[in-house]
């Protein structure tokens, strides 16, 4: 059963309705049958804040929104049907969008008048746009990671003599990628500090700060997400090979790894240096298994991915690796 509002009840309810609109952050504009504004309240901040007696469609909506608003008002009066649509404005310094509703109303004996509501959608749409951009970036990075993992699986299989060897090497390389991604994700995709990345890659083999054979030095080097992924993989190959064949397979071996900023022309580059000394001169040789997938990663895959120049030298006494690349790669 619907109760008809009397004049008295309408007068009591109206302030509550206006309060509800304000709480819902909905702006309200009311015009009489002659086209004069009777009421303006709560309009989004990018509308001119005018007194109703001074307001005109031209000043309230501007040249860009006026045609659409005028047409909606005419259609609402002519057809007696509510009109709903969005208004948007984009410039170099502005992005504004609101949801508009234009409704006809009539008081007995008076010409049809107009009631308009305005709901600001700017913040909501910006969040949606940001989320879409993040999802696109996530999709892009996921595809890149899957491609890297596929390549690692293929190359590891080619250079593994049996299933156990394949699984051991493959798991280690995937773990290296996962570790690098954890750091990148924790930084909100800004990238990874080189020292933190190196410490995490060593963590599978040595306790941080507990192995006197290992020294990690770094300037304030923030690697890009792409750089962190590939350099993490390079470090894993160097560390794993050192523990298997090189300096870290010896009690008195020595490994020094450093990242520093260097000047290059008018710009700045990062230089990563890995230098391990193998006591007794019984380390890896230039040929043999040591120069299979690991050397491919260090000499081709990583330099190509971050547009870097690499030097990789192996002798019985030393393993030396240098990588130089732009700071934003």
Keywords for this structure?
Beta-Lactamase; 5-stranded mixed beta sheet; 329 residues; 7 helices; 26% strand; Heat Shock Protein 90; disordered N terminus
Describe this structure in words.
It is a single chain. With 329 residues, the chain is an alpha+beta fold. The chain folds into two domains: 7-120, 2-Layer Sandwich (Beta-Lactamase), CATH 3.30.450.20; 145-326, 2-Layer Sandwich (Heat Shock Protein 90), CATH 3.30.565. 44% of the residues lie in helices and 26% in strands. The chain has a five-stranded antiparallel sheet, sandwiched between helices. It has a five-stranded mixed sheet with strand order 7-9-10-12-11, with helices on one face. The chain has a two-stranded antiparallel sheet with strand order 6-8. A hairpin with a 2-residue loop joins β9 and β10.
Mean model confidence by pLDDT? 85
Cα distance spanning the termini: 70 Å
What is the number of helices? 7
Shape: elongated
């Amino acid at each position: 059963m619907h109760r008809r509002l009397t004049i008295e009840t309408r007068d009591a309810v109206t302030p509550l309705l206006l309060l509800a609109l304000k709480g819902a952050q909905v702006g309200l504009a009311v015009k009489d049958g002659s086209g004069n504004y009777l009421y303006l309240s709560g309009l989004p901040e990018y509308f001119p804040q005018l007194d109703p007696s001074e307001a005109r469609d031209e000043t309230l909506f501007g040249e860009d929104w006026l045609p659409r608003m005028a047409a909606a008002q005419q259609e609402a009066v002519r057809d007696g049907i509510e009109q709903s649509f969005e208004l948007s404005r984009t410039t170099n310094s502005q992005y504004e969008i609101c949801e508009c509703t234009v409704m006809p109303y009539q008081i007995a004996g008076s010409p049809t008048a107009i009631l308009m509501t305005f709901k600001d959608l700017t913040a909501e749409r910006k969040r949606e746009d940001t989320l879409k951009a993040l999802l696109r970036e996530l999709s892009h990075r996921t595809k890149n990671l899957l491609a890297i993992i596929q390549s690692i699986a293929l190359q590891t299989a080619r250079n593994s003599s049996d299933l156990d060897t394949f699984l051991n090497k493959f798991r280690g390389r995937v773990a290296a990628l996962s570790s690098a991604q954890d750091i990148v994700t924790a930084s909100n995709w800004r990238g990874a500090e080189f020292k933190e990345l190196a410490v995490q890659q060593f963590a599978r083999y040595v306790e941080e700060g507990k192995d006197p054979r290992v020294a990690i030095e770094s300037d304030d080097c923030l690697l890009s997400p792409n750089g962190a992924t590939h350099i993490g993989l390079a470090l894993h190959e160097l560390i794993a090979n050192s523990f298997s064949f090189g300096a870290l397979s010896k009690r008195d071996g020595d490994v020094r790894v450093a990242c520093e900023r260097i000047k290059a022309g008018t710009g700045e580059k990062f230089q990563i240096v890995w230098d391990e000394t193998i006591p007794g001169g019984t380390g890896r040789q230039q040929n043999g298994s040591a120069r299979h997938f690991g050397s491919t990663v260090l000499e081709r895959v990583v330099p190509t991915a971050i547009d870097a120049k690499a030097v990789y030298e192996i002798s019985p006494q030393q393993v030396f690796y240098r990588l130089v690349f732009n700071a934003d790669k």
